[in-house]
Inverse folding.
């Protein structure tokens, strides 16, 4: 026996570092290509579209079921004025321009519309609240006077418009029927 022969099984440190570098580059390319921040924004916008569509459908189904009359809260709104949608709150103040970045200005203090009647009548499971993005409509108060992040208007012809105060990857999120 002249000498011991070693059977090399394994990788050298250089080989391992090269493989780790290649995997890191591939992961970075995939991460950038998928752009998770944009996907999260799209998901929140999608939720907003779904929320306003559900709200408007509930308002219209309630109208049909009540022989053409709107929910009393919607019916008592002044035509052509935007109102912050709230859930059960009876407020005389707090709805005016907490939403300074909302496309539609809730300019009159107290322009809140309580949509909890749609919940109690079974048209909605709960009044939806806009998912937190930049939260441009929230005053930061915990008093419950911020609304839902959605505004509503009934025009003179009876068409109801609902809009999300925030839209992250869309120009605006608004629906009318």
């Amino acid at each position: 026996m002249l000498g011991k022969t070693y059977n090399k099984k394994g990788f050298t440190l250089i080989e391992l570092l090269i493989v780790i570098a290649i995997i890191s580059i591939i992961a970075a390319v995939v991460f950038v290509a998928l752009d998770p921040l944009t996907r999260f924004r799209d998901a929140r916008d999608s939720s907003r579209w779904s929320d306003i569509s559900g709200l408007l459908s509930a308002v219209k189904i309630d109208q049909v079921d009540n022989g053409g009359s709107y929910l009393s809260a919607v019916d008592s709104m002044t035509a052509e004025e935007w109102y912050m949608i709230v859930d059960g709150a009876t407020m005389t103040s707090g709805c005016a321009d907490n939403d300074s970045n909302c496309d539609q200005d809730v300019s009159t203090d107290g322009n809140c519309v309580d949509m909890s009647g749609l919940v109690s009548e079974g048209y909605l499971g709960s009044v939806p609240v806009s998912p937190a993005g930049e939260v441009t409509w929230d005053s930061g108060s915990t008093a419950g006077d911020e609304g839902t992040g959605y505004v509503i208007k009934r025009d003179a012809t009876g068409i109801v418009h609902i809009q999300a105060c925030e839209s992250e990857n869309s120009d605006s999120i608004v629906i009318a029927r």
